[in-house]
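Minutes, project huddle
Topic: does the predicted pose make sense with manganese (II) ion bound?
PN asked that the exact inputs be recorded in the minutes so nobody has to dig through chat later. Recorded below.
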Amino acid sequence: MSKDEKKTEGQKLQDALSYKKKNYFEEADDAERKEMFDYAEGYMAFLDQSKTEREACAYAVSAAKAKGFTEYKLGDKVKKGDKKYFVNRDKSIVVFRIGSEDLEKDGYRIIASHIDAPRVDIKQNPLYEDSGMCFLKTHYYGGIKKYQWTAIPLALHGVVMLADGAKKEIRVGDKEGDPVFYINDLLPHLGRDQMGKPAGKVIEGEQLNVVVGGLPYRDKELNNKIKLTVLKILNERYGMCEEDFLSAELSAVPAFGARDVGFDRALIGAYGHDDRVCSYPALTAVLDNDSRHTVLAMLVDKEEIGSEGTTGIQCKAYEDLMEEIALSLGADPRRVRAASKCLSSDVTAAYDSNFSEVFEKMNAAMISCGTCMCKFTGGGGKSGSSDASAEFVGEIRKIFAENGVVWQTAELGRVDVGGGGTVAKFVAKLNIDTVDLGVPVISMHAPYELISKADLYSNYKAFIAFMK
Ligand code: MN
Ligand code: MN
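Predicted holo structure (tokens), as shared on screen:
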């Protein structure tokens, strides 16, 4: 007798009627587990090359070129079958394929994710020397717990625009043999007062100064000799002088690379899973898979500070792009938008038994249970959320079921505990059905975040199903 035949009527009825989340590792056979692990390798290589939005954008450009995609500039014409990418100011990119379906009836299939991540940005007049060390002053970017960024190895990434208009790229700290940079913390022996402070005050914003030197320039007549040594090196290497910091975008990011976590290597630790763990599947889904639909992978900037500016998703450039594609194919952009569908692909908080008090377990994202849909985000009372309709959620659910996607739904934490937002509401505003879907993350916004290889791969499979 098989297991099922031994079941009572009640057990069978319960199986038929009840909902239970599934662990994707458990659901997957050995071949699929191997696919998960293999896919993770490519993702981790992408992470190590892409610690800023500029680097992620550059990675996407070369990956797109390698797959035969060509650059689209605003004003260009497109035709069915085209494979294109549109770069916005080197910080965001839309990779797209023109499908065979009638665009006015079928609309776009959009996967929108972001490639900026929380970090510590260098100020515009940052360099000073004090008591044997040279520092860069900073202003952090995005929602960070400031104390987490001290006493870890940091790398400096970014660009400097020199006085003559030349653009210099800086990237120091990740390569084998590179020096790293450092933010100081206080020793516990003198930390009694510090340890009594609320965590938000343990390290204050103006204490996030990055150590960049300690070697005095040999000249008895000078003050600020260490600063001069640093300036001399910057000048020799990048042709810059102190004033060039004024027109620079430099960021301190964690120097460590992505690594397998655990004896069984089921998890990945890395800087910037939020939101590259959605951007990479979005990019690879569109690059690697043909579709009858017109599909767009949007990898945008500035999500962590409100999606503002010329590279955030609120910028008209993306709307213009969609309008131009429509017009180029003889379709009415308004009708195309109304027929479009979007997965706003961003991470969510994974349930963590160490902090169970902030979660409501029935509606929390469980690690390894697949990519996670948030019907709505926002704070108490769903405020600030676009809240997808039951009809649209039903449509996506059907697509996932037909394609064997292991997935789950969740809210970000207990009601009234906190909240968060994504790009979903900005896309929804364009009259495009949109719902959030992304990977659950442990320790989100920390310098080293944790995700599951099962959830990464589920996200990729979900995107392919959505595009099919
Ligand atoms: Mn995010
Ligand atoms: Mn975030």
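Observations noted during the meeting:
- The domain at 119-254 is CATH 2.30.250.10 (Aminopeptidase i, Domain 2).
- The pocket of manganese (II) ion (ligand 2) is lined by residues 274, 304, 445 (CB under 6 Å).
No decisions taken; revisit at the next huddle.
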